[in-house]
Amino acid sequence: MIEHFTPREIEAMRPAGQFVGQALSTLRDEVGVGTNLLEIDARATELIAAAGATSCYVDYHPSFGAMPFGKVICTSVNDGALHGLPHDYTLQDGDLLSLDFAVSINGWVADSAVSFVVGEASRADLQLIETTERALEAGIAALQPGGRLFDVSAAIGEVCRGAGYGVNLQFGGHGVGRTMHGDPHVPNDGRPGRGLRLQPGLVIAIEPWLMATTDEIYTDADGWTLRSADGSRAAHSEHTVALTADGPLVLTDRT
User: Fold this and answer.
1) What's the rounded Cα separation, in Å, for the pair 55 and 61?
2) Are 194 and 22 in contact (CB under 8 A)?
3) Do the Cβ atoms of 115 and 77 come closer than 8 Å?
4) Phi and psi of 29, rounded to 5°?
5) How many whole angstroms from its chain centre is CA 79?
6) What is the pLDDT of residue 255?
7) Distance separating alpha carbons of residues 195 and 223, to the nearest angstrom
8) Residue 37 is inside which H or E element, if any?
9) First CA to last CA distance, the chain
10) By three-state DSSP, how is residue 134 classified?
11) By the 8 A CB rule, do 188 and 238 touch?
């Protein structure tokens, strides 16, 4: 079921969005060469506790996961595209890291992701990350009252394909509200003018993600991490966005 929320309910979502945005900024500033993925998860756990928030990931067990996730943040490294399960790995110079984080505060959920390179970055990695960020901005700009859901998808796909990347449609954006994953599904490519009529009150996570030289994935032996089929690098950008009568409102803004 697709939910629409009142202006007061959207306002009540702000604390969760602000916390998620701030937490990702904090983690990005603190993570560096030599940081272990388990240290990132421990630090995120501390931030959650200090904010009185609740993790959306620890007990999360959808059909595509081998078991409950068991951690509070996704840490996808290099060819890890999505759902990276934190494990005993120490980040090396040049690693591409994606952090995906979702919590609930006062019963309202926010979900966001950011990708960056630890240490010295290659031009190819920076271009990959920058493309996901531009695609995210384009998708947010296309979320307008009276439009169609696939206007958002088409805007994302145009940026990604225009930069020479393939687009995987198995995983994409989704509704957000009282739960982390709800309707509608928001694919990262599509034909404009189709899909759900966009009305104020819709809250969705918009999340373009790309792999450098493939659009196919496989599931790692850990039962969670989705990796590029050819071992190429991956990047992921995401915001929780509410549609208001005045246009899109980014709830997880990191600025």
Assistant:
1) 13
2) no
3) no
4) -70, -35
5) 16
6) 84
7) 32
8) helix 37-51
9) 32
10) helix
11) no
Query: What is the per-residue pLDDT across 88-104, written as a single tens digit (0 to 9) for each?
Result: 999 999 999 999 999 99
Q: Is residue 19 part of a domain?
A: yes
Smallest Cα–Cα separation from 117: which of 145, 144, 97? 97
Distance separating alpha carbons of residues 9 and 147, to the nearest angstrom: 22
At 229, the amino acid letter reads A
Measured distance CA(12)–CA(15) in Å, rounded: 7
Counting every residue written for the chain, the total comes to 255
Question: What value, to the nearest 5°, has the Cα angle with vertex 88 and ends 85 and 94?
Answer: 85
d(C-alpha 100, C-alpha 162), whole Å: 25
Query: Which pLDDT score is estimated for 84?
Result: 98
Provide the domain limits for residue 83.
Answer: 7-250
Per-block average pLDDT, block size 10, for the chain (255 residues)? Answer: 96 98 98 98 98 96 93 98 98 98 98 98 98 98 98 98 98 97 97 97 98 98 98 98 98 94
* Position 1 in a domain: no
For residue 140, the one-letter residue type is I
Tokens matching residue 63: 């059909």
Q: Which residue has the tokens 């490519």?
A: 189
Report the domain count for the chain: 1
Which CATH number covers residue 90? 3.90.230.10
pTM: 0.97
**How is residue 198 written in tokens?**
């966009």
Residues pairing with 105 in the sheet: 108
